[in-house]
Amino acid sequence: MVPRGPPVGYRSAYDRTHVRLPRRRAGSGPAAAGLAAAARVSQLELALRADSSARHISFVETGRSRPSEEMVLRLAEHLDVPVRERNALLLAAGYAPRYPQTPLDDPSLDALREGMERLIRGYEPYPALVVDGTYGVLAANRGITMLLEGVPEHLLRPPLNAVRLTLHPEGLAPRIRNLREWRGIC
Fold it and tell me: Is the separation of the CB atoms in 14 and 27 below 8 Å?
């Protein structure tokens, strides 16, 4: 039950990074993933950080050069691309994904799930949530039921998103005294 995509209004540092996907050329297969510099980072600065040349970065961006798998990962690291997005960049450049994406309900993560459950139970009777990087609710304790009392059923259907639930006019928003300031943060 992990939500697809970020909640409305969510912006990460990655959103300020311009990443172009490769263009296909006739007969040449996929071109290299074009990575442009992050906001206010020049090609030269990115090249210095990634131990490359500005010319090579330019060639990668325009598809004139195919970056190595190592270069794609180095550029992603220096552009602060989240790990979950690095697989997409590798695929766009023609490489296999490097980072495993294991769903939370996988048996290999039983210990992690048990630890999360124990942690949030420790906060009872107070409400506690465990959310993912896009504020999708992964787990909640019994204390949350009091907090969500009176919230319409349609907002509580999976996939549950903490930001949507909090800022929705029918959700918790009417209960927040400083909603205008708080909404500006999200």
Answer: no
55, amino acid identity: R
**pTM to 2 decimals?**
0.56
Burial class (CB in 10 A: 0-12, 13-18, 19+), 162: buried
How far apart (Å, rounded) are the C-alpha atoms in residues 152 and 150? 6
For residues 64 and 162, what is the distance between their CA atoms, to the nearest angstrom? 43
Tokens of 92: 């766009």
What whole-number distance in Å separates Cα of residue 94 and Cα of residue 116?
37
Tell me the per-residue pLDDT of 88-118, one tens digit each, with 9 for 90 and over.
888 888 899 998 888 888 999 999 999 999 9
CA distance 164 to 3: 12
Axis crossing angle, helix 54-62 with helix 69-78, rounded to the nearest 10: 100
The Cα 131–Cα 103 span in angstroms is 14
31, containing H or E segment: none
